[in-house]
Write a structure and sequence with these properties.
Elements (H helix, E strand, L loop, with lengths): L1 E6 L6 H12 L3 E3 H11 L2 H11 L6 H12 L7 E5 L5 H13 L6 E6 L2 H9 L1 E4 L5 E3 L18 E2 L6 H24 L3 E5 L4 H11 L10
Parallel strand pairs: 1-3, 1-4, 2-3, 4-8
Antiparallel strand pairs: 5-6, 5-7
Helix pairs in contact: 1-8, 2-3, 4-5, 6-7
Bound molecules: adenosine monophosphate.
The site of adenosine monophosphate has 17 residues, from helix 2 and helix 3.
């Protein structure tokens, strides 16, 4: 089982890198943010609980997050491996993932940190818009849609997530950068950490992410 962890602060570009990488590796992206947003849309109890934290720009408690992730990993399409986007976000989550994988005789193959300085993250996040239908990401200045407010891919309306409003961005940053540093240390200590420069153009970041897989045993399907 290939487990690729994509690490980066909110706005670092993990969400842009994950789908093309998944296509090249032939394994699905599992993004806990997407799982939570789906739960919110479904109106499930877990969704209602998670929403309180998400709208406030806070991390959802580890217990809820870990059980949601493990449920997803147990699905058949995850058997050959997954790309994790947005998980783990705390040291507790990273340890819980190690334990769950060890029970299957597996481990994290590589953890790739997409590294971007904090001031650039705030700039990026405050201009981010995503589409209602599928979450395709746009940015006011660096990757605007062809027609304002409309998704190029599926024509659905673009909106700014409640947790991407400038007032909640700082709150997200302060909490999440501290936790991210612990997760980075966790993977550095276990020897699977690779760092790529997230300030490069998107294509160069993709190439660096691909290069970071060399020697990890994770094979490209194409
Ligand atoms: P994202 O789409 O990854 O930015 O996630 C959106 C929101 O979902 C985050 O701000 C958190 O409130 C919540 N969330 C997603 N992943 C996690 C996680 N691994 N741990 C805790 N909360 C999470």
């Amino acid at each position: 089982m290939n487990v690729v962890v994509l690490l980066g602060a909110p706005g670092a570009g993990k969400g842009t890198q994950a789908p093309p990488l998944a296509a090249r590796l032939g394994i699905p992206v599992v993004a806990t943010g997407d799982l939570f947003r789906a739960a919110v849309r479904d109106g499930s109890q877990l969704g209602r609980e998670a929403r309180r934290y998400m709208d406030a720009g806070q991390l959802v408690p580890d217990e809820i997050t870990v059980s949601l992730l493990l449920e997803r990993l147990a699905r058949p399409d995850a058997a050959a491996g997954v790309i994790l986007d947005g998980f783990p976000r705390t040291a507790v989550q990273a340890k819980a993932l190690d334990v769950a994988l060890a029970e299957r005789g597996a481990s994290v193959s590589v953890a790739i940190l997409v590294d971007v300085p904090a001031d650039e993250l705030v700039r990026r996040m405050s201009g981010r818009w995503i589409c209602r239908a599928a979450g395709h990401p746009y940015h006011e200045t660096s990757s605007p849609p062809r027609a304002a407010g409309i998704c190029d891919v599926d024509g659905s309306e673009l909106y700014q997530r409640a947790d991407d409003q400038p007032t909640t961005i700082r709150a997200r940053m302060d909490q999440q950068l501290g936790a991210l540093a612990q997760v980075v240390e966790h993977y550095r200590a276990s020897g699977v950490l690779r760092t790529v420069d997230g300030l490069q153009p998107i294509e160069a970041v993709s190439a660096a992410v691909g290069a970071a897989l060399a020697g990890t045993g994770v094979a490209m399907a194409r």
